[in-house]
Amino acid sequence: MSKDCDMDGGETTTKGRIVAMFFRFLALLLIAGALYLSTEAIFIIIFLFVIVAPFEKLFPRHKGQKIRRPKLDTDLGYALAAPVLGILTGIVAIVIGILSLAWIPGLLIRPYVEQIPEQYMPIIGLLLFDSLVYWTHRFYHEIPVLWKFHAIHHSTEHLDWASGFRSHPLDGTILAPAFVFLLTAGFSLEITGALAAAQLVLGLFLHANVRWKLRWLHRLIITPEFHHWHHTNERDAIWTNYSTFLPIWDLLFGTYFMPKNRRPMVYGVSEEIPDGIIRQLRYPLREWKNPLWYLLHPFQSIKRTFKFALLIVKSMWKSAFRKRGSKPWDVYPKPEQVEIP
Fold this sequence. Notes:
By secondary structure, this protein is an all-alpha fold. It has one domain. The protein is built from 14 helices and no strands. It has helices at residues 17-37, 40-58, 72-80, 82-99, 103-113, 121-142, 144-154, 176-185, 189-206, 224-231, 248-253, 277-282, 291-296, 298-320. Helix 6 packs across helix 14 (298-320). The protein is globular and about 60 Å long. The relative contact order is 0.13.
């Protein structure tokens, strides 16, 4: 029995028609609300298409890949829904930034930061920001409960000018600890905001379907080749290339992977990620309890939340101190038995 899917992720078979229409309606409602708030996403899509798509046609990495490739509508849907999803990301990012306690070391080093000459602040800020994002990004890959959110971004099986748009709003909190750390350490909002914005913009271009290897840059700054290896689902490349600006962090901590005589060919993830915006937004939260449960069981909520936080800390320790060059698990991804709070 054949089936087709669209941006809402519903099957157009008779059995799934009603569900498909419902999810399609929710997706269109989300996009309509986002466009009501702002139409900037339309211009960003057009700009990125005009700038990047011609190079993908002239210098394609995967020659058979069409511009109108499978699941393109899902990725563009994420772009159009960005104004609404961005609000959710901002709210959660503030919470994550506070709960991460990144502001504590920020305050501790503030007296030393205040002694840095102003002309060196952007350079020092970049190094600190990039190193912290490296570790947050690494944790989002190697801690199963966090991976569920980041897996949405990695679920695309075709990398091109539009695939960078696909991202769960709670996955956007990857930048939160680094952002809070820099602000509390005394770096200006202009420097911190510029670094965060640059990382987001650069991320869109790094997914491009271009064949440029740029070998001489591989150990200096990240390139599309570097990031494509990060996205591949080929076994030996998994859990590598976490850096967002400078590959030095992967080189230092044993996660650098840039083979000379081959190129990444297979993308996506091994687990089954549903199609469509609404289903993908729900996917990481399927095992979480109904929000009303927390209100009706406050003491159990506190207990489960504490256990959950302790598990995250243990998983962070495991990731940070795993043997250099080793892999966290034998199967990718292999979720641990996690009791969701």
